[in-house]
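Postdoc handover notes: sequence design on the structure in folder B. Input tokens:
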């Protein structure tokens, strides 16, 4: 996505400058609205001995406005952060918050038992806990004979 954004900027910034933001204020950000129709949700993924855990900050969204679908190897999270217009866009001095549809597809590091997944939403943090599939675990076999 960075390469796509840089190409829309006409390669005015190096990738390092893009991340450091050294010239970002003078170049403009017209490419933001053109890169994707939905914002990408930030997600942390980690695993314990028995489960795969996904955490995503989704402030300003009701649980009813979040759609989660899962297969044994993938989780898709979709939703929409609705903006209540208080003022005209031209009145903003700075506008950094993302409003609108967002989504994220996360490929799991190993198969999970999604039918046993637990989902919670507390203080704007969505947490999914997916038990690891037991069919991927190794079993010690004994030689008979």
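Designed sequence:
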């Amino acid at each position: 996505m960075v390469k796509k954004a840089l190409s829309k900027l006409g390669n005015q910034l190096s990738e390092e400058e893009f991340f450091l933001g050294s010239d970002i204020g003078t170049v403009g950000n017209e490419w933001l609205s053109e890169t994707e129709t939905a914002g990408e949700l930030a997600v942390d993924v980690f695993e314990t001995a028995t489960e795969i855990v996904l955490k995503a900050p989704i402030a300003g969204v009701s649980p009813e406005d979040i759609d989660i679908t899962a297969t044994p190897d993938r989780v898709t999270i979709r939703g929409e952060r609705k903006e209540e217009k208080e003022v005209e866009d031209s009145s903003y001095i700075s506008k950094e918050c993302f409003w609108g549809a967002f989504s994220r597809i996360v490929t799991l590091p190993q198969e999970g038992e999604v039918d046993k997944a637990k989902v919670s939403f507390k203080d704007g943090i969505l947490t999914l806990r997916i038990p690891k599939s037991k069919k991927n675990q190794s079993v010690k076999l004994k030689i008979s004979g």
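Context for whoever picks this up: The beta strands are 39-40, 44-47, 51-57, 66-71, 74-81, 100-107, 118-122, 125-131. Don't rerun without checking with the PI first.
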